[in-house]
Amino acid sequence: MSSKIIFITLLYLCIAPLNAQINPSHKSESDTLRVTPISVDTMRIDTMRVDTIVIRTLQNKIKNISRGANLTGPTINFNKTKALDEEYRPFRIPSFWDKENKLSINLNEVAFVNWNAGGNNSISALANIKFLRNYKFRYVQWENLLELRYGLNSQENQKLRKADDAIRFSSTFAYRRDTISNWYYSVRANFNTQFSNGYKYPNREAPVSRFMSPGYGFIGAGTSYIPEGKKFNLYLSPFTQKVTFVLDQDLADKGAFGVEKAKYDANKNKIKDGENSVIEFGVLITNTWQGEIFENVGVRHRLSLYSDYLESFGNIDVEWELNFALKVNKYISTTFGTHILYDDDIKFDPIKADDGSIISDGSPKIQFKQLFGVGVNYNF
After folding, report:
1. Residues near 149 by Cβ (< 8 Å), separated by ≥ 6?
2. pLDDT, tens only, 239-261
3. In terms of Cα–Cα distance, which of 102, 98, 152, 148 is closest to 126?
4. Which of 74, 93, 138, 336 is most buried, judging by how many CB atoms fall within 10 Å of its CB?
5. 3-class SS of residue 136
6. Neighbours of 106 (CB within 10 A)
7. Into which CATH architecture does domain 103-379 fall?
8. In which element (H, E) is residue 296 found?
9. Where is the signal peptide (predicted)?
């Protein structure tokens, strides 16, 4: 009997520690389970080893943490409130259009009173209206320009004479593949003509030019270099069609501005009218730049080069304008400008026979125009 008691006692002493680990006692209000840790040197106090995974045995309940401001009993005070100092400006949707409307009037006057060296009183006026509409957003750029110019000159003992006359319109649509490159694929259309008749003074009987006589149209495709933040544009087009219009039949019959002249029989009777247009196909290069070289001294440059593939390739038509503006204030400026023109189709000094018939149409020459005046500028 005693041996059985001893055996049961030893068995109880062996099983009791294991039972304490498997069924731990419950403790406190937090209901947290606590396991008696195994005494191993490499273990933390609150961990136990299960295979090769270490599991925390203490898992305290996470308490809710209050966030945000305490809005209990808010107080609103208008004592420091005051009216707006500036006019209220409602939000406007950003526009990608750049617009400019500019009117310029330049005047030049010379007067003499009892001037011993002699001279004629004169006054001239030149009006210039420019409308600019440019669109630019990411990959697309679209530039549109309409420029109207007209000038008159009056001298003592002479009638009014035309000093300047131009209608110009240009539109360029450009597309680039990314927003980093300054090179664009471009399509451009230009049109130039004039308002009124032009004469070779003092002869006022036979006009040498009229509205749409000539008229020049250009349309082509190429590439443009347009750097960001600079008023610079370089356009290169290997495929450009140029059309010259001469709608006045008298000028067309004379073969003015490169159109085919009328044909006559031996008795000088016209058997075929002159052509009213001529079509060319060639390469066009244009460059425009506008900037400020010194303080209050601006410059504007425009260059156009064209050569026809079909006839006289290598003979280049040149048009170059260079204008300087010395700004006095917001509305007044002094303008100095030059305009050089060379067109292989415009002939000068025709050679005539004794009977008056034209043997040769002459040869092209460099045309030059210079202007200087004080101007009034107004943007609207």
Report:
1. 126, 127, 128, 129, 164, 165, 166
2. 999 999 999 999 999 999 999 99
3. 152
4. 336
5. strand
6. 22
7. Beta Barrel (2.40)
8. none
9. 1-20
Rounded to an integer, the average pLDDT of 82-87 is: 74
Q: Is 22 helix (H, G, I), strand (E, B) or coil?
A: helix
pLDDT digits (tens, 9 = 90+) for 3-45: 556 666 656 655 655 555 545 544 444 444 454 554 544 444 4
Distance CA 269, CA 246 (A): 21
CA dihedral 21, 26, 28, 32 (to 10 degrees): 70
Residue ranges of domains in the chain:
2-48, 103-379
- The H or E element that residue 281 is part of is strand 277-294
Rounded CA gap, 64 and 26, in Å?
24
CA 39-42-48 angle, 5° bins: 60
- Of 139-148, 162-171, 337-346, the poorest mean pLDDT is in 337-346
User: How far is it, in rounded angstroms, from Cα 56 to Cα 32?
Assistant: 12
Q: How far does CA 329 lie from the centroid of its chain?
A: 26
Instruction: Please report, as a single letter, which amino acid is at residue 67.
Output: R
Sign of CA dihedral 359, 365, 370, 376: positive
Contacts of residue 373, defined as CB under 8 A and 6 or more positions apart, other chains included, come to 106, 107, 108, 124, 126, 334, 335
3-state SS string for 230-251: CCEEEEEEEEEEEEEECCCHHH
Instruction: Residue 186: name the closest of 153, 225, 216 by CA.
Output: 225
- pTM exceeds 0.85: no
Residue 277, phi then psi, degrees to nearest 5? -160, 160
More confident residue, 61 or 211: 211
Structure token digits, residue 288: 């425009």
174, 235 in Cβ contact below 8 A? no
Quick one: average pLDDT of 292-312? Answer: 93
pLDDT at 334: 92
Given its phi and psi angles, is residue 362 left (phi above 0), alpha (psi -120 to 50 degrees) or beta?
left
Does the pLDDT value for residue 157 go beyond 90?
Answer: no
